[in-house]
Amino acid sequence: MERIAVTRVLATLFIAALAAASAPPAGAADPPVDARTKVILVVGAAGEAEYGSNFINQATHWKEACAQAEAQVTTFGLEQTGPTNDLELVKQELDREPKDCIAPLWLVLIGHGTFDGKEAWFNLRGPDMSAATLGSWLKPFHRPVVVIDNAAASGPFINKLSATNRVIITATRSGSEQNFARFGQYFADALTNPEADLDQDGQVSALEAFLYSSRKATEFYKSQGRLATEHALLDDNGDGLGTPADWFRGLRATRQAKDGAALDGLLAQQLRLVPSPAERSLSPEQVAERDALEKAVLLHRERKADMSEADYYRELEALLLKLARFYAANSATNAAK
Fold first, then answer.
1. Per-residue pLDDT tens digits for 108-140
2. What is the 3-state secondary structure (H, E, C) of 180-221?
3. Contact 296, 321 (CB under 8 A)
4. What are phi and psi of 130, to 5 degrees?
5. What ranges make up the beta strands (E) of 193-304?
6. What is d(CA 232, CA 244) in angstroms, rounded to the nearest whole number?
7. What's the distance, Cα to Cα, between the start and end of the chain in Å?
8. Long-range contacts made by residues 59-64, C-beta under 8 angstroms, separation at least 24?
């Protein structure tokens, strides 16, 4: 009976929380400019016209999504004239960005990549950018950072860029996968595609876009009867290992590395480029508070096997009560606006 009562309480709390989270805001105010997401789009050297049109199409999708998100966006590589040393321009842009703030920074690399057996490179107009170089540029950043390298041979970027409070997504799992990668075109489409919204909350997270794009790339090779030459990875726990899409069931990683490394996906699920109306109603501080509460619940679920049933449900109930109170308080605030 006690277990049934706890289960009913949890179910009630979940229903209340979900209802409050999905309720449309009343007169939500636009966030200040300095609190908005910043997106840096870097389009690399195309080489052939076919690839150039593909890269431009990807960048167009990203810019449209940024417009919907009211995000700040800076692009490199789309200009037909002007400086060709994009390496230095990207460095200067990153130098200008705040290193400690709530607003996420998305760095998107669209183009070709290479691997020389020791170092992975992203091909730019002018000097290319190595994984080690980008890693040094990002080292001062403590704000949330999402790096999406859509190029071939991009896997080694994970090891060089992985850090706390950072999501790294690569189109390949290693530097040896050097054929043209299609992952990026699917990721660009996922940003505003309802099909990619697995939890049906009206927005697509970095994790959902990663899973959607990986599935689409797999389907492409199967439909063509070809051996897949790209296997995307996601790292967001700072261990530099990366997790493939087929380790996930829904939005949860259900497989774990042999050494017991922490699961990926928690941070990536909480970072969305285009927020839903309900998400827009929250301030950056409220989003951070909500995300911390939701992460605590998810981490608690991973401890279930190591706890007694009574302790597990008692602590889970306490966490869900905090989350329900948060949603209730903010729902009431939005209704009063």
1. 999 999 999 999 999 999 999 999 999 999 999
2. CCCHHHHHHHHCCCHHHCCCCCCCCEHHHHHHHHHHHHHHHH
3. no
4. -85, 160
5. 233-235, 243-244, 248-249, 252-253
6. 6
7. 42
8. 59/110, 59/188, 61/188, 61/189, 61/191, 61/192, 62/108, 62/110, 62/188, 62/191, 64/192
Q: For strand 105-110 and strand 145-149, is the pairing parallel, antiparallel, or unpaired?
A: parallel
pLDDT single digits (tens) 126-176: 999 999 999 999 999 999 999 999 999 999 999 999 999 999 999 999 999
Most confident of 1-10, 59-68, 311-320: 59-68
Give the domains, in start order, of the chain with CATH numbers.
2-26+281-336 (no CATH), 33-276 (3.40.50.1460)
**3-class secondary structure, 321:** helix
The pLDDT value given to residue 259: 65
Q: What is the mean pLDDT of residues 180-199?
A: 97
Q: In the structure encoding, which two tokens stand for residue 153, read together?
A: 């041979």
Contact (Cβ atoms closer than 8 angstroms) between residue 335 and residue 28: no
The DSSP bridge pattern shows strands 129-130 and 120-122 to be: antiparallel
Binning the chain into helix, strand and coil, the percentages to the nearest 5 are 45, 15, 40
Alpha carbon 35 to its chain's center: 18
pTM to 2 decimal places: 0.84
Look up residue 319 and give its amino acid. Answer: L
Structure tokens at 255: 């497989």
Alpha-carbon gap, residue 182 to 42, rounded angstroms: 17
CA 180, 185, 190, 191 torsion: positive or negative? positive
* CA distances from residue 26 to 56, 203, 327, 333 in whole angstroms, order as listed: 37, 18, 15, 9
Give CA separation, 303 vs 201, 256, 299, 313, in Å: 26, 14, 7, 11
pLDDT tens figures, 204-239: 999 999 999 999 999 999 999 999 999 999 999 999
Mean pLDDT of the chain: 86
Rounded to an integer, what distance in angstroms lies between the CA atom of residue 314 and that of residue 85?
58
> What mean pLDDT is predicted for residues 295-311?
80
